[in-house]
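Exercise 7b. Backbone tokens:
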């Protein structure tokens, strides 16, 4: 039985991490694009107003100013809705930040379908793909509030650009302060030899719930939290393929270009096994309550179970 320590949105973990960093490092500078309260960076602004800037609804300027601050020796964090920072400012991220390998950390909030009523225009379902294809960019998708806070703090130790994806809606907190977290190193949460479920973000909890359902069916599933999509922990993916012989990936993102694609790229080069992907199937989102959207688009534990039963037939 998975132990849950509360429910709170991962965006608050991002804000908490920034405040903690701000107390320790005077070079931390935070920039927002009008939505500073929504993405939970307003607490940093209140504590450190001289290291905080709200540039308004101007995402391209947001990234450009962060680049300038990085050149000046600061460690800038920018945060706004993921769909806007990754979409509107992609050229600035690519050419100004990544091309020069600048030390800019990007927070993409309100990711996935769980933005809910805001609808397709605000539901970032493609940004893992468009961020991970950029040279020098690291991509992190934490599974809960605690891991999001750790991702923010750990990102300072990585020189160069980092993209951290997190959400708006309350989600279960099931990791602890002492749960291991290292950028580029995945975690095995449940061990098993019949199938490996590799998940990121909100889908890690769904994967844990799926493993409990599968155990009642006599199927032992290994559950792996791949919080870092790039660089991928290739060793753990290859080991899981060799031990289990079948893999299911789960992500709150398009099935194209995200976690499932990244895992498949590793396997096709090293140890090919059957793979089934749980994600959004080449569709835009829509307005609705988050739970209803997750059900409609097939992003619940039962959908992972169905994918496991399907992939086991292909072993």
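Sequence design result:
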């Amino acid at each position: 039985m998975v132990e849950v320590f509360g429910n709170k949105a991962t965006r608050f973990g991002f804000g908490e991490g920034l405040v903690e960093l701000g107390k320790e490092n005077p070079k931390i500078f935070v920039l927002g694009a009008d939505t500073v309260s929504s993405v939970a960076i307003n607490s940093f602004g209140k504590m450190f107003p001289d290291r905080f800037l709200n540039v308004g609804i101007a995402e391209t300027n947001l990234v450009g100013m962060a680049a300038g601050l990085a050149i000046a020796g600061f460690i800038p964090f920018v945060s706004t809705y993921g769909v806007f920072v990754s979409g509107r400012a992609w050229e600035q991220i690519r050419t100004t930040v990544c091309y020069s390998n600048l030390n800019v950390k990007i927070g993409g909030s309100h990711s996935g379908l769980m933005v809910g009523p805001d609808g397709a225009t605000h539901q970032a379902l493609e940004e893992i793909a468009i961020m991970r294809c950029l040279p020098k960019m690291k991509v992190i998708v934490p599974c809960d509030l605690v891991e999001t806070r750790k991702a923010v703090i750990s990102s300072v130790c990585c020189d160069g650009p980092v993209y951290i994806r997190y959400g708006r809606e309350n989600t279960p907190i099931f990791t602890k302060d002492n749960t291991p977290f290292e950028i580029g190193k995945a975690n095995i949460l449940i061990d098993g030899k019949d199938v490996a479920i590799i998940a990121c973000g909100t889908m890690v909890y769904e994967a844990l719930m799926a493993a409990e359902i599968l155990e009642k069916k006599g199927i032992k599933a290994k559950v792996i939290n791949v919080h870092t999509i790039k660089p991928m922990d290739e060793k753990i993916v290859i080991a899981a393929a060799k031990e289990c012989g079948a893999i299911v990936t789960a992500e709150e993102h398009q099935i194209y270009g995200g976690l499932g694609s990244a895992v498949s790229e590793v396997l096709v080069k090293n140890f090919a096994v059957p793979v089934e992907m749980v994600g959004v199937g080449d569709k835009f989102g829509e307005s609705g309550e988050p739970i209803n959207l997750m059900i409609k688009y097939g992003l619940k534990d039962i959908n992972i179970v169905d994918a496991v039963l399907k992939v086991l037939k292909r072993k």
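Instructor comment: Residues 10-24 form the longest helix (15 residues). The radius of gyration is 19 Å.
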